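Please review this pair:
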Amino acid sequence: MSDASRTGGRRSGNPAPGLSTPDDSNTMNSIPTSLHETMKPRTRSRLPDTRAWLAAGQWLVTLLLCAFLIVPVIMSIMAGLTVNYFKGVSSGLTLRWLVEVWTQYHDSVFLSLDVAAATLLITLLTGVPAGYVLARSKTRVSRIIEEFLVLPIALPGLASALALLVVYGGFTRFRMSLWFIVVGHVVFTLPFMVRAVAAVCASSDLRTLEEGAASLGASFFQRFVTIVLPNARPGIVAGALAVVTLSIGEFNLTWMLHTPDTKTLPVGLADTYASLRIEIGSAYTILFFIMTMPLLVAMQWLGVDATGQRSATKKRAAAAAASSKQKPSSNSIDTP
């Protein structure tokens, strides 16, 4: 083969096997792009916008408010664990005051638990049916009854206790018994059970379920046990926790109704702060804190939703996800 044929093959633009030549068009296109990027002005770092500043301010206010509420509780707990409150933690830590409080006031602890258990039992037997009936009834009479049930919450506890004393104070044996305090606690806590159950029964479609069960021959008792109670369980749990917590911590009403033999936990707490050292009163606060905090934690841990909004939202989200899966994809194109 001649040299001309070799040089001609290379001049024709066909590269030799194994060799590559740069693409002139790509090279020419990359030059303006690089020049445009180098000539682009550098953007300055942006300052936080108004929404970010507003969110930071909300967080700051929330943290300050939490500190304002929590710091006194922490200081009270520390006072019950120190040897001398006026010297502070430098005087040393001790459990002496807790032991002394338990020795002197353990009867009040068990008495408060008995009152709370009896109050819970009565509110369950009366509040659950009442909440169900108020949720099913749409008449004006039911709304008036509901307002009367909520009335003890609006009134001060001292006023409710005075009313009970005026009406039932003449019955000496009843007045001196523990049941007198239980009646006062039922009057105060019953609205919380009724409203919690009524909210759940009103949000769920109980009427349709009951009509379907009635068409199959189920009696009212069977429908109430197998349909109403399972669907009203979130409201019942929420109301029960609220009733027990409020009964253990109720002071105003109990202080008016108690006797020396029926002194509950909050009344004993007031006595310790009034007549004994502040260390003993703070230790009593620790004991009260230990009794009430598990109830509040249980309410959060169980995910109690008295209104049923979270469960309804989950059901709507699940229904939307199921419907989206059933719909065919609009981007898919059938090809033969």
Q: What stands out?
A: The longest helix spans residues 96-136. The two ends are 54 Å apart (CA to CA).
